[in-house]
Amino acid sequence: MIKRTAGFTLLEILVVLIIIGTVVGIAIPRLNDVFEVDLKSTIRKFAGTAQFCFNESVIRQTPIRLNLSFDSQEYYLSYLATNGSTGEFVELPSTFVDHEQMPDGVFFLDVATPHNPDKTSVGEEFVIFYPTGYVEPAVVHISTRDGRVWTLLFKSMTGKVVVYDRQIDFMDLQNNVIQPTGTTSANGNGSGWGRKKKSSSSSGSGGSGGSGGASGASGSSGAAN
Questions:
Q1: Among the four 6, 106, 108, 136, which has the fewest Cβ within 10 Å?
Q2: 98-117 pLDDT, tens per residue?
């Protein structure tokens, strides 16, 4: 009698491969969904932090910095502690923000500010909030593991963050050539995430009609759904 050697038949291998393919096909979309939630949550939290800095600076009547670390991929707050005629920025203890770490696959790409218009992508950089209610304009780029880039624009008079679903710079914003994806803020109201706003028509001159770019978004407050 011929004994059957140990092993798998071709049919058994095909069945296993089909099962593995089915499981992977179900798991990958779910992983992508989880990643999208992390991305939107990160941007919402960062925008909320900006609004917190805006309010806290006015309440404390002292400048506050929102510090971004490219090396450790985290952000934290500091405030101007004065001692007589001198002062220095020290870390601000807060239950709202305490060295917030960027999630896996989401990271700070670079940031540009008036005090340092050349893009910073290493070390640390900051956006400063003044007790008068003025915020230093800044453009922060956040990138994802799949190569997408998001632009976060700090509005100087409100502290809100306008979100663009592509990489743009100060020059693009000054020319009002790109419509924002939506405005996120700490209150989380509104909509517009992932959808471009339609530019409103204007019967005036070309200059006034072109104001629908970044400035046109500041009138609405939205967040990631």
A1: 6
A2: 889 998 889 999 999 988 88
The bridge status of strand 106-113 relative to strand 116-120 is antiparallel
Question: Residue 225: which of 195, 199, 203, 201 has the closest Cα?
Answer: 195
- DSSP-derived letter for residue 225 is -
Residue linked to tokens 């095909």: 14
What's the CA gap between 188 and 163, in Å, rounded? 13
Q: Rounded to two decimals, what is the model's pTM?
A: 0.65
The two tokens of residue 128 are 């400063």
Which one, of 66, 159, 156, 152, lies nearest residue 110 by Cα?
Answer: 152
| DSSP-based three-state secondary structure for 13 | helix
- Read off the amino acid at residue 7: G
Residue 80 · residue 67 · CB < 8 Å: no
Residue 210: predicted pLDDT:
40
Q: Where are the alpha helices (DSSP H) in the chain?
A: 10-60, 170-174, 206-209
Name the residue type at position 100. Answer: E
CATH topology of domain 16-197: minor pseudopilin epsh fold (3.55.40)
Residue 114: HSE in the Cβ half-sphere, 13 Å Cα cutoff: 8
Average pLDDT estimate for 57-85: 93
Q: Could you give the percent of the chain with pLDDT greater than 70?
A: 64
Residue with tokens 């179900």: 26
Alpha-carbon Rg for the chain in angstroms: 24
Burial of 128 from C-beta contacts in 10 A (0-12 / 13-18 / 19+): buried
